[in-house]
Design a protein that fits this description.
Blueprint lengths: L7 E6 L5 H13 L4 E6 L8 H8 L15 H5 L3 E4 L13 E4 L10 H22 L6
Parallel strand pairs: 1-2, 1-3, 3-4
Helix pairs in contact: 1-4, 2-4
Length: 139
Amino acid sequence: MTAPAVPSVLFVCVHNAGRSQMAAAFLTRLGADRVEVRSAGSAPADTVNPAVVEAMVEVGIDISAETPKVLTVEAVQASDVVITMGCGDACPYFPGKRYLDWKLDDPAGQGVDAVRPIRDEIEEQIRGLLADLGVEAAA
């Protein structure tokens, strides 16, 4: 008997420096090894937003070593679920993929006080996504 396939999720935003990085970090933490996680940006920044890094450290997740990655066709093709966060028409579309668009404020240029509610909303969305995927959230 073969093990069930691990669902693969790709988070996409413009700079891959804020929302998609937080979402990927939460899914990695809460999905443990039961979900494959990718993130990318249509126009990646040089570094992850420092306020985003700080906000994630507050909830015990260190993303300071992450680097923004460019969105590739291969990343989309290899993913079961593609979640966009304000990347608009820059996201390639492939039939047969499940696309979700999460309306989230952009943390770019904002301080950690503005990032916290975005972070918390992303965590809620991730918990809902895990339930949709039939994956129990890790403690």
